[in-house]
Known about the structure:
Strands 3-4-5-2-6-7-1-8 form an 8-stranded mixed sheet, sandwiched between helices. It has a 4-stranded mixed sheet with strand order 11-10-9-12. The chain is of the alpha/beta class. The radius of gyration is 24 Å and the shape is elongated. 33% of the residues lie in helices and 17% in strands. The protein has 2 domains: 189 residues, P-loop containing nucleotide triphosphate hydrolases (Rossmann fold, 3-Layer(aba) Sandwich), CATH 3.40.50.300; 218 residues, Nucleotidyltransferase, domain 5. α13 crosses α16. 43% of the residues are buried. It has 16 helices and 14 strands.
Amino acid sequence: MYPNMVLWDKQIELLKSVAMNQETWIKSGQSVSKTFTLALLPLWWLSCFSPALCLTTAPTWPQVENQLWGNLRLHYNNAEFNLGGKMLLTEWRKEGDNYAIGISTDKPEKFQGYHNPNILVIVDEGPGLRENIWPAIDAVLTSRNSRLVVAGNPLSKVGKFWNACSKPKEGRHLIHITCQEAAEASEKLSISGMVTKAWIDDKKIEWGEKNPLYISRVLGDFPDETEDTLFPLGWLEQCIGIVSTEANHVSIGVDVARSEVGDETVITVLDKVTGEVRKMIATRTKDLGVIENQLLGLNQVFIIDEIRPDDIGVGGELGGRLEKTILKNKIVRVNVAEKASDNERFANKRAEYYWNLRQMFRDSKIVIPIEYKDKLFAQLSPQKIDYSKGYIQIESKDKMKERGLPSPDWADSLMLATSWDVSIDRVSQKPGAPEPFHIDNLNRPLMPERRQEEKDWRYL
């Protein structure tokens, strides 16, 4: 604690739970102060026990370095008294065997060799942690005085985080924090930096209360994902990343707005070598001249192999217009209503292309920058697969609107951008036998192009 710090009841419950219970698991909405609170724990642990060790981890290195340890350094520097030791970027060393360290890795062996009679393990964004890491963490927690605290936005009803949060046991305390609770506390206690009621109301309108994104990030609960879910939220979240600075040849998908009320024209620039989404441009316009100029501008920045507009309706008009410009040799008109290449499995090209995109998310063959994730994932996560007619079919835009969902302009644009690479390997699953979503599917090889120098957690 330090001067002017105000804690609300869920923060206090979290801190007390770690002191009293061997395990504390927190499922929550976003921006409810969970990482801020977790960062107080290493300071308490090393100040009260000796020798003492605190291990902190998260799915990605930036989450460790910038979020958890950014808050930890803030607490350390603002403490009312000198806490001693030497505070580094992701390490705090005191005298003897007293230290806290931040690690992030997909290699369980990196957790070996840590032994201490008093050990605290903190896992931030627990649902994103790879399943093969949990046994390694359990092996660390064998000391006579050990504690585990795990927090995160719930993603899917599979894996360690779901099992722990749904199965109470002796010594395990479960905490549930909604954004509504946090917003009310923030308003009542004048706590800055937390979620607001205005943000909640905005997401209720933008996403809808039944959207998996709303259930996870606002209600702090596990979304219901069935076998007809096209894009499990866990798969989407695993593909959030930082794009590299070196551009390769790109494919551009263009979804033109059918109306200027609610719909958007979205252009997606996809790196064909790394699978990185380089850019997404969204405008509420049907003006083909404006769209043409945007594409001509992108031609000055990227090495464009192909521009893939939807050839149905106004998209077809755009294709014809572009074929009269310097981009003419790059235009590939896409009619998603046409017969699929594999017409024994798919109802049409729309189903085939969306299935291809699904497999890219499953296999981590695509990278979504954080600035696009909310809008994009809100349109991908509610989509359903229909197997009823013996082949795979994706619900239409009109049917989605009947369910109260927005037109999937961002999703369609990404689908078109990735349609250049529909392979038999990616569409080989037979209809009627949907692949079950299981957390083990997240433990897959990743492209070397996703490496972020030495700091990328996947390569530590």
